[in-house]
Here is the input.
Amino acid sequence: MRSGFEPCEGGCTCGHVRYRVLSEPPIVHCCHCSWCQRQSGSAFAVNTLIESARVEVRSGAVEELMLPSPSGRGQRIARCPKCRIAVWSNYHMGGLRDHARVVRVGTLDALGAAAGTHGAWKNQGRNGQIESEGERQ
Amino acid sequence: MTDPIEGAEGGCTCGQLRYEVRAAPLIVHACHCRWCQRQTGGPHVINALCESDLIVLTRGEVEEITVPSPSGEGQVIARCPSCKDAIWSNYLVTGLGKRIRFLRAGTLDDPTLMPPDVHIYTSTRLPWYVLPEGALAVEEFYDTETTWSAASIERLQALKAAAG
Here is the structure.
């Protein structure tokens, strides 16, 4: 994250689901795994990991779907029940599933608030290079 | 770029939807607009544009959801009815309606088959995202006549003629 974090808001594309991130996420991943590529339809996902209690749902109730994941323990994706945009996921994460959300950074209203810090699983990366401040990925 | 790409198949995460792409894409966009960022949750989408009848579902049926779009005309997103992964979109502003699909290239089994030809709406590019060296990139949109290949323009004209 950039320094000087301030609470920020985001949501789905139809506006039904709105959320607020209350504190600075411990880390932001750019994940180039083939699962994130397929789920986003793009080159990589930008996921910020944060305590579930620090993501407040302001409006709308998410619809949760359990899907297969690379670990074999499953990934629960939270989507808007109307426009189906995914806003976060919960991975098993050694038993932390219900306590940590992996928020899709692209759903934030102000993207300047977040920056990728780790090129996770970069060996599966492809077109589109990423570079966080001072660090070539 | 008119010959089909060998092995251009893809599908959703749960496997209920499978498709084949039976021609090279007309063009491939990496779109950095805020709408694509929100819909993917990532820095940009990768959309491979192709005639709808050349992207063939080989398994399953899509669920279509109309959402707002920057043009105001709306965008239809085709998703797997089970896992909800988005596979392609139709932008209703194009005048070609459902005759052209914007395939999400990340859903290909081998997404390296369709790298971006052009990065668009880089005016809202994430500040830390570095464009590949030498990549064609525009702040908003480009001029089709000078950006698409001659073969793709010919295919576009055929699409327009069919649409009337």
